[in-house]
């Protein structure tokens, strides 16, 4: 067996505030094969890395009186959200803010870094990965996730063309480039399939019922439909990877413990797709009950045991907030090769 590719989820976000250059650099130093930025858009059309376009929980925007009047409510993907939104700020205004830890109660050590780092652009992240590849002799991949594509299109900020433009600026719009673009929304992936030659990944949720763009269009396809054999065959018409939530691959029983794998990996293989699961985290709060150590939800559990279970299930890659743990666990079970890319199986 070979160990799965390790994609640092929002960087080494178990150790630094997510979506900062510091988190991405640390992930690379820990041996991650790729780094993942979630992409949202500024008012002047610049793609930046934030988990959501509402940034009240991940920056110090609330401490900036000059931006107080920008606080507002919007309907995003069918949900009413109140706060500060990237699409209401120019990049110059966003640069006055500093990132902070999104989960300070769970990760208080990360909160010590609040206020140190700015919000990075996609261009900065691509440059970081390319320079790290030269420095380390490894091909460091980038896995951008397009957030809220249908919403952004509705307000005149289409994202797909901006992603492709950035890839082309950095010489990365080619099939062998260490890039994998992902989204929960099939529509933007279908659009990208006609615009770029890099591989694409369909994200599949296990909590929300269906992709928002399909709901908005009146399409009744659900996320569960996407991981049926027919759904996976349809994904294979526009993407090369499927990215299911981890519980869709290793379902939990009534006690919250993981058992036998579902048919998702086998069915994805039959459709010609590679499989990456999300998100592996070290804290007990996120682990199956049979891999928790102690009662404290913030305490470190047996993440290596979860990695082993997904290796046995045959996945090609995993997203993790703690890439160092996953790298070590993978090395203990199977060899890794220098310079692996997102094209590897």
Q: Would you write up a description of this structure?
A:
By secondary structure, the protein is α/β, with parallel strands linked by helices. The chain has a single domain (5-52, 108-333), classed as TIM Barrel (Alpha-Beta Barrel), CATH 3.20.20.190. Helices cover 30% and strands 15% of the residues. β12 (274-280), α13 (303-313) and β13 form a beta-alpha-beta unit. α1 (21-29) runs parallel beside α4 and α13 (303-313) packs across α14 (323-333). The model has no long low-confidence stretch (mean pLDDT 95).
Order of helices and strands: EHEEEEEHHHEEHHEHEHHHEHHEHEH
Q: For the record, what is the CATH homologous superfamily label?
A: Phosphatidylinositol (PI) phosphodiesterase
Helix content: 25-40%
CA radius of gyration is: 19 Å
List keywords for this structure.
3-stranded mixed β-sheet; 14 helices; 13 strands; TIM Barrel; alpha/beta; 8-stranded parallel β-sheet; 345 residues
